[in-house]
C-alpha cells in the first residue's frame, strides 16, 4: 500500500507548479516560435520541474504536477501553435511514465533529502536521469516509427544535440530538487540558465529552418554548398574520395502547366523523399532550385569501385523516382501523377576536379549528356585516362 501523502509533499508540489508556471509564462514567446519551427523531435525544457517532482514526490502527486504544467503548456504554447490535442496528451502520458521510472530508482534510498552526502545517492540520481530520458525517448520514438513513413534513426531517437539538451535539462531538474529541499527560494536560481537554454536552442532551430528548403525539407543550395565544401576539406585531409550527383526531374514544367504549382510542389516533395530514402543518413541532399537536386556522398572508395558505387546509388534513385505515384489535389479533384523520371549526372573528387566547383561542373556536363541521351538515364563522368608509360626504346 502506498504511503499517505504528507503536508510537506503537497507544499513541495505547490512550489514546483508555481515555478513551473512562472517558467512557462516567461518563456512563452520563445516556445511558440520553437514549436512552429521544431521538427519531429521537440523538447520543451519543462523536464526541470517534472523530473524534480519525480524524485521528490509520490507518483500520484508527481503525476498531478505534470498534469498541471502540461495543461498550462497546452493552453499557452501547444494550442496556439495548432498542435493536435492527441499529440499533447500522448506527450503528457510519456512524461508521467518516465517520471514513474525515475521515482522507482530513488525510492529504495528513501528519495532525495537535500544535497547528496554519499556516492550511492548521487549514483541513484544519475541513474534516474538516464532512465527518465530513456523511457521518454523510447516511447516517443516508437510512436514516430509507427506513424512516420520512412523515418530515420535521427527522427525516431532524436539527434544527439536534442538528447544532450534533455540531459542538461534533467541535470538542472536534479539540482532544483536538491535546492527545493534545502530552501525553496533557491530554485529561483534555476530560471536564468533555463532562459539562456531556451534562447540558445531557438537560435539553433532558426538556423536549421533557414538552411531547409520549405517545399522539400532538403538543404537549401547555400546550406548544401557549405556542407559539401566541409566534406571536401575533410576528404583532402584524409586522402579520401567523395562524389556528387546532380539530378533533374524530366518534363516537370508539364506537371506545373497541367495540374498547377501546388501539385508541382507535392511532386517535388515526393521526389525529395525518394532521394532521402536511397542515400545514407550522412549524405548531403539539397535542392538547387526549380526541379534540380544535388547529392554529395562522402567516404567513397577511390577510383573504379567508387564510380561503380556512385552509379549504383544513382540507378536506385532513378528507378525509385520512376515508380512514384503521387496523389495531388487539383481544381477537378484528386489526381495521381505517374510516369515521373529523372536524369542524373555524377562526378567524383579528386578524380574529376580538385575543388567543389570543378566537380560540380563535371557532374553538370554528365547531366546534360543524360538529357541528350533521351532522359531518364544515369551518366557518370568517365575516369580520366592515364597516359601509358613510354617504352624505354621509344
Automatic annotation (TrEMBL):
Transmembrane regions listed in the UniProt entry: 12-30, 51-73, 85-110, 122-147, 167-197
Superkingdom field: Bacteria
SUPFAM superfamilies with a match to the protein in the record: Nucleotide cyclase
Listed InterPro entries: Diguanylate_Cyclase (IPR050469), GGDEF_dom (IPR000160), Nucleotide_cyclase (IPR029787), Rev_trsase/Diguanyl_cyclase (IPR043128)
Pfam families, per the entry: GGDEF
Protein name (database record): GGDEF domain-containing protein
Protein keywords: Membrane, Transmembrane, Transmembrane helix
GGDEF domain residues: 240-383
Gene3D superfamilies named among the record's database cross-references: 3.30.70.270
SMART domains (alphabetical): GGDEF
This protein's record includes keyword Transmembrane helix: yes
Amino acid at each position: 500500500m502506498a504511503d499517505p501523502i504528507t503536508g510537506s509533499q503537497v507544499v513541495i508540489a505547490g512550489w514546483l507548479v508555481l515555478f513551473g508556471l512562472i517558467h512557462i509564462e516567461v518563456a512563452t514567446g520563445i516556445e511558440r516560435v520553437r514549436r512552429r519551427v521544431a521538427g519531429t523531435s521537440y523538447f520543451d525544457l519543462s523536464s526541470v520541474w517534472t523530473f524534480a517532482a519525480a524524485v521528490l514526490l509520490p507518483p500520484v502527486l508527481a503525476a498531478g504536477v505534470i498534469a498541471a504544467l502540461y495543461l498550462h503548456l497546452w493552453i499557452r504554447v501547444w494550442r496556439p501553435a495548432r498542435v493536435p490535442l492527441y499529440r499533447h496528451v500522448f506527450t503528457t502520458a510519456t512524461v508521467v511514465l518516465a517520471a514513474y521510472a525515475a521515482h522507482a530508482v530513488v525510492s529504495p534510498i528513501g528519495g532525495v533529502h537535500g544535497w547528496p552526502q554519499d556516492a550511492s545517492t548521487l549514483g541513484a540520481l544519475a541513474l534516474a536521469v538516464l532512465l527518465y530520458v530513456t523511457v521518454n525517448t523510447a516511447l516517443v520514438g516508437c510512436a514516430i516509427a509507427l506513424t512516420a513513413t520512412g523515418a530515420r534513426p535521427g527522427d525516431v531517437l532524436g539527434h544527439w544535440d536534442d538528447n544532450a539538451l534533455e540531459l542538461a535539462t534533467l541535470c538542472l531538474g536534479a539540482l532544483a530538487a536538491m535546492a527545493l529541499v534545502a530552501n525553496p527560494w533557491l530554485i529561483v536560481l534555476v530560471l536564468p540558465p533555463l532562459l539562456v537554454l531556451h534562447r540558445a536552442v531557438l537560435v539553433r532551430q532558426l538556423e536549421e529552418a533557414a538552411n531547409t528548403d520549405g517545399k522539400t525539407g532538403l538543404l537549401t543550395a547555400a546550406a548544401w554548398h557549405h556542407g559539401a565544401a566541409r566534406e571536401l576539406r575533410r576528404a583532402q585531409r584524409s586522402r579520401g574520395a567523395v562524389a556528387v550527383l546532380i539530378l533533374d526531374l524530366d518534363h516537370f514544367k508539364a506537371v506545373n502547366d497541367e495540374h498547377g504549382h501546388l501539385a508541382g510542389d507535392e511532386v517535388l516533395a515526393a521526389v525529395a523523399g525518394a532521394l532521402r530514402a536511397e542515400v545514407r543518413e550522412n549524405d548531403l541532399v539539397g535542392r538547387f532550385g526549380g526541379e534540380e537536386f544535388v547529392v554529395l556522398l562522402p567516404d567513397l572508395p577511390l577510383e573504379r569501385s567508387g564510380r561503380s558505387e556512385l552509379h549504383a546509388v544513382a540507378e536506385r534513385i532513378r528507378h525509385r523516382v520512376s515508380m512514384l505515384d503521387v496523389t495531388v489535389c487539383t481544381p477537378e479533384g484528386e489526381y495521381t501523377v505517374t510516369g515521373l523520371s529523372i536524369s542524373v549526372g555524377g562526378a567524383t573528387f579528386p578524380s574529376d576536379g580538385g575543388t567543389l566547383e570543378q566537380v560540380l561542373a563535371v557532374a553538370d556536363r554528365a547531366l546534360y549528356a543524360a538529357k541528350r541521351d533521351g532522359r531518364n538515364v544515369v551518366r557518370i563522368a568517365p575516369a580520366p585516362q592515364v597516359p601509358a608509360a613510354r617504352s624505354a626504346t621509344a
